[in-house]
Amino acid sequence: MFSLLSVDVKNSSARRLQLVLAVLAISVFFLQGCSTSGNQKLKDQTQSSIDEKILVGKSTLQSVRDEYGDPYSTITTDGGGLIWIYRYQHGTPWNRNFIPIYNLFDSGTDLEITELIISFDPSNKVKKTEIRKVSDVAKRGITVQ
Fold it and tell me: Which of 12, 51, 100, 136 has minimal CB crowding within 10 Å?
């Protein structure tokens, strides 16, 4: 009788372990999703939607800061003006990133980058706006050169 009870306990422990491993594997799969960084307000912007919010010659440095927050990068021009750059980046990992061992040799992420470049004149009024959308790839692994 004792040996039968012992077998059931082992069997029960094995099932619990399988369940825990399955839940862990599923959790890792869902947690390894897409990543985003930067200014979320740029996510779905186009040049025309930017032109509706930021008026050349009328919008000021402060009104842009109120709408979009602090810039990702700031450049001071020789003429005393400023250029502010806002950035939004969305990354989608490759499927092969999730293949054990293989991902050590070759893995990567597809990147969609949106940048909003705003030029200000010396009186801090908007001089020009430009939105750029770029697709890129970030590669990792032993075989990446």
Answer: 100
Q: Are 119 and 81 in contact (CB under 8 A)?
A: yes
Give the model confidence (pLDDT) of 84-127 as tens digits.
999 999 998 888 877 888 778 888 889 999 999 999 999 999 99
Strand runs labelled E in 34-104: 35-38, 73-76, 82-93
Residue among 4, 24, 22 at smallest CA distance from 14: 22
pTM: 0.69
Q: What count of other Cβ atoms lies within 10 Å of the Cβ of residue 37? A: 12
Closest C-alpha among 56, 141, 46 to residue 103: 141
Decide if pLDDT at 144 tops 80.
Answer: no
In this structure, which amino acid lies at residue 109? T
Fill in the DSSP letter of residue 59: -
Q: Give the residue among 70, 74, 51 at the shortest CA–CA distance from 62.
A: 70
User: Which has the closest alpha carbon to 76: 121, 33, 130?
Assistant: 121
The domain ranges of the chain are 1-31, 34-140
Tokens 């390894």 — which residue? 32
34-140 architecture in CATH? 2-Layer Sandwich (3.30)
